[in-house]
Design brief:
The complex is a heterodimer of chains A (about 375) and B (about 120). By secondary structure, chain A is mainly beta. Chain A is built from one helix and 32 strands. Classes of the chains: A mainly beta (about 375), B mainly alpha (about 120).
Chain lengths: ~375, ~120
């Protein structure tokens, strides 16, 4: 009886409730120079804390576990770090290669794959323990690693142009070559419906698509002659394709070596328009639930962000958020965009309707911003 | 952006025809490069260059210069290369690779300063 009373009292006073934190509106900002992460609260527009000891985070990215509790951080130095957002601690870390570029988590959240430059290839880890599950060497630097439904991953080799689909659903991995994308593919992305794997080419003009709904996907090249009437400009930063916008039935693609956005009809893969923009596009990201895409640019023109209407293909706003804008991340329903300004040591928060700044958060040389809603998006 | 190239090139290149201009420019560069103390850079500009090397070059070569899409640029990796060669690679890029020409953004002196910095012999 006494025990029951005690239990009742205990239940009536949920002491721990005040300390509980839900992760659905949280995010992590990469501080590239200091090897640390800032945990942010999207609703409160606030920094909650800093997590340190993640190594070289230049060109780092991360992905989330399905429960939005853990982040898997892919560092330049080959480090794969598992971070617990709730306890704000590093819970596992392995330096799994000499040099790596990114990673992905399988659709069921069981496997984490990392694409490596040195030695080239893909390594797959148990998401729980970070124990090595599979090692798939490649003939060069591996780029454009994405998760594909059915415990699969796709990736591409910069040096050779080869594209692979790996199926890790069985006892042994099954690796299928999908053909050659072209010369020096610099990044790749999967459309949000997991239908098309798009590979951007640096060594030649064009983009190569693979229909992953097809049981035997084949390379299909398009956009092979853009900018043929002018001389290409130096590319001071490689465009990133993870943000490639898919809107109004179109792909919005960065022209490599041109200060342009190229609009391609998704169904026909024909170019429908070209938008002259401020500089070499790096990220072109669709504002969710809107007709707009936001674009940032390579150094030295990286203090500017432009907004383009995907219906008219016109620039509708030009903003100057800060010095060295590296990344933009939208609230999942599109109300706000968070913009990292590396050289101002700030993350700037803009209202997407007014396009006015509503808040800012201090961060040391911030680069990528990752909200936990990514946990539920294929290809991220 | 101010044209920083002017200060290092006007004395040698009084606008002759294009091809002669190019040859003169190379000669001018060679003379510049042959002078060890040529890379005189004001302290605030040096700080900006260091920031650029770490952050912007670091995008491809790694913040710690251990390499990425671009080759490693550690002191050891660059030991066999002389500063003049490195400066020319910085200024003109490497055709057929992702290394772009930085000449539109840097003077020759600045490229030499970066070469020295990368080799670990910054004044």
């Amino acid at each position: 009886m006494k025990r029951l009373a005690l239990l009742a009292a205990f239940l009536a006073t949920p002491l721990w409730a005040e300390d509980l934190v839900a992760t659905g509106d949280l995010g992590l900002v990469i501080e590239r120079a200091t090897g640390s992460l800032v945990l942010v609260d999207r609703s409160d527009r606030a920094a909650l804390g800093r997590i340190e000891g993640l190594g070289d985070l230049s060109h780092a990215s991360l992905t989330y576990s399905p429960d939005e509790r853990f982040a898997y951080v892919f560092g330049r130095d080959g480090g794969l770090t598992k971070v617990d957002i709730l306890t704000r601690q590093v819970v596992a870390r392995t330096v799994q290669a000499g040099n790596s570029i990114g990673g992905a988590i399988s659709d069921d959240g069981k496997l984490v794959a990392v694409s490596n430059y040195e030695p080239g290839g893909v390594k797959v880890f148990d998401a729980q323990t970070l124990e090595l599950v599979a090692d798939i060497p490649a003939a060069g630097k591996t780029i454009g690693l994405v998760d594909v439904p059915g415990r699969r991953f796709a990736w591409t080799i910069w040096d050779t142009g080869e594209v692979f689909l790996g199926d890790f659903s069985g006892a042994e991995p099954v690796i299928t070559p999908l053909g050659n994308a072209g010369k020096n593919p610099f990044d790749a992305v999967l459309t949000d419906d997991a239908h098309t794997y798009l590979v951007g080419l640096f060594g030649e003009k064009g983009v190569t698509s693979f229909d992953l709904w097809d049981p035997a996907p084949k390379p299909q090249k398009f956009l092979t002659d853009y900018g043929k009437d002018g001389e290409d400009m130096p590319v001071y930063k490689m465009p990133h394709l993870q943000g490639w916008a898919f809107t109004e039935g179109q792909y919005a693609l960065p022209a490599v070596g041109r200060h342009e956005i190229l609009w391609v009809d998704r169904a026909s893969e024909k170019t429908v328009a070209t938008t002259p923009v401020h500089g070499q596009p790096v990220f072109i990201i669709a504002q969710p639930a809107s007709p707009y895409v936001w674009v940032n640019f390579a150094t030295p023109l990286n203090d500017t962000v432009q907004v383009v209407d995907s219906r008219t293909h016109e620039v509708v706003a030009t903003l100057s958020p800060g010095k060295a804008v590296l990344h933009m991340e939208f609230a999942p329903r599109g109300a706000e965009v968070w913009i990292s300004s590396r050289d101002d040591n700030k993350v700037l928060i803009y209202d997407t309707r007014t396009r006015e700044k509503v808040a800012e958060i201090a961060a040391e040389a911030p680069s990528g911003i990752f909200f936990t809603a990514r946990a539920h998006q294929t290809g991220l | 952006m101010p044209d920083r190239r002017r200060s290092s090139s006007t004395s040698c290149t009084p606008r002759p025809p294009a091809r002669v201009h190019a040859v003169l420019k190379e000669l001018c560069l060679l003379i510049l490069l042959a002078t060890p103390a040529a890379a005189e850079i004001a302290p605030d500009r040096a700080a900006a260059l260091e920031h650029m090397v770490v952050q912007d070059c670091g995008s491809c070569h790694g913040l710690t210069m251990k390499g990425g899409l671009g080759r490693p640029l550690t002191h050891e990796a660059l030991a066999p290369s002389d500063r003049e060669t490195l400066a020319l690679i910085i200024l003109d890029g490497v055709p057929g690779t992702a290394m772009p020409p930085w000449r539109p953004l840097l003077t020759e002196d600045e490229a030499l300063w970066i070469a020295d910095y990368l080799k670990g012999v910054t004044p």
